[in-house]
Amino acid sequence: MFTQTNKKSRQNIAQGTSIALDNGYPTRLNFYKDPPLLEISIEEFEQYALDRMQVLTTLLTAQMRNLTPEQLDRTMNEAIKKYMPMSSNRAQEATQDHQYERRKDHISHFILRLAYSRSQELRSWFLRAECALFRYRFDREVSSEQIRFIVSQNLSWKKVSDDDKRRLASELSASSFKTTQKVQEETYFEVDFEKVTGLVGRRQVYLKGGKAYVPMADQVDLVLDEFKGRLANALEVTGRALPRMDEDDRLMPVLNNINKQYLGREFTTSAIAGEIQAQDVDSLKVHMPPCMEHLHNEMRREKHLKHWGRMQYGLFLKGIGLSLEQALIFWQMAFEKLTPDQFNKQYAYNVRHSYGMEGKRTDYTPYSCRYIIQNNAPGPGDRHGCPFRHFSAPNQRAILAAHDVDDFDTEDIMSLAQGKHYQIACTRYYEVTRARMLGITDNLKGGSIHDGEGNVGMVASQESIEHPNQFFEQSFLLMKSRQSQGESVGPTDGQNGPSETPQPTIKGQYVYKKAGAGAQFSSNSNHDMEM
């Protein structure tokens, strides 16, 4: 699992170059008060940051998609095991593994703190993500480790004495809806009310003389507020100090690009749809994400696309399997106002260049959602970009209406887009439109869908949409599996037994319904930009 460089780091830790486990990392929880003091390579620096990004984005996406606790744990366990394992103190593992894992957690937090201190928007995202990760870890830690961590922080919380609990029994009972006996059995802490504004806002604590009386059961809110306050202050301090690092040409390029990194699969060429001919593209439009479908429609209408539109759409077509030879035919047919000679002089070079046959001979890959959202914003006359990021609200509604998305689902998708969760909005669009294409009018919830005749199928992917070509592949595989299985349940290859083709599934707790029917959906629209 570890690279050669990582093995060297673990050896250094074992030889005493790190803080001792019992002194520096007594538990898996950390307030990240002090920066780590050790040397690591630039390769480790970047890898640690990207590994932590994987965990943070997995958690935030899972929370946005309203997964059940079981689904959330399964998703997070996979991500943590792959990118940032954190063994408990009860695990029968070598001490150096504990030290390495917790040191990596420590280092990666500070790397991202540097990377995400450059603007208020980035700071807000990082604060929200780190608070979510801290709460996730705290909730799943055993109580003895929680107490051990709290004690190690020397927090200025006064434990309420038994005499004070008896004196305030009626007030504490009323604020927590507990009996007087339960109040006497509970441990309470007296803290400044500013430290637990969340609990105060929800009226879950008793207030007197500027103090809040917090039961042990609500300690996670108490600890989380402490963590959030410290990290928010630290991010402001880091943001002010960051300009002094501008001359460091080793770290700044890495820090400036971490939040722009696409962490998923690269789509170079695909055989999912077979050998695509130029004349096949129109029939494949049904599987395209809205950004590419819009480019296709505008190209057909105007018989032309400007540079960034050609790049975004051309690389997408390359990724789904359109060869260079067929791409040249496709674009020449699309730009039908031009003569073959005009096309060869003005555009053929750029097509060959994108396939790595001209210039530096770079084999360009299709743009990810992150790249489309964050780069080359469309200007007047441009048709590229992400509809959920760059289009006006009326234009977004027009796209949804053109695909018969009903009012409830439209508001759902629009609220996600307006909350800057563009990729999750696209994922929800995928779920709604693919279900409608399959004639599904019943529940779409928790991993399965029903077609109204008892047949159970699958609609979306285990992850949110991160790449236009991912959208295309999922849609194509879904339709192919449904066509090949006929009325049967589960994918088949048309011969004997199940197909080996990987099948998409769905995550989330959404209910798909007929237009006008009742619906259930839980969504928090108060979000920062999805990174």
Automatic annotation (TrEMBL):
GO biological process: DNA replication initiation; DNA replication, synthesis of primer
The protein's required cofactors: [4Fe-4S] cluster
Keywords: 4Fe-4S, DNA replication, DNA-binding, Iron, Iron-sulfur, Metal-binding, Primosome
Transmembrane segments: none
GO cellular component, one term: alpha DNA polymerase:primase complex
Keyword Magnesium: no
Pfam families, per database record: DNA_primase_lrg, DNA_primase_lrg_N
Binding site for [4Fe-4S] cluster: 291, 369, 386, 426
Domain DNA primase large subunit C-terminal residues, every copy: 286-472
Record note on cofactor: Binds 1 [4Fe-4S] cluster.
Keyword 4Fe-4S: yes
GO molecular function, one term: DNA binding
Region annotation (Disordered) ranges: 482-509
Biased composition (Polar residues): 482-506
Function: DNA primase is the polymerase that synthesizes small RNA primers for the Okazaki fragments made during discontinuous DNA replication.
The family this protein is said to belong to: Belongs to the eukaryotic-type primase large subunit family.
Name the UniProt record assigns to this protein: DNA primase large subunit
The species this protein was found in: Modicella reniformis
Upper classification of the organism: Eukaryota, Fungi, Fungi incertae sedis, Mucoromycota, Mortierellomycotina
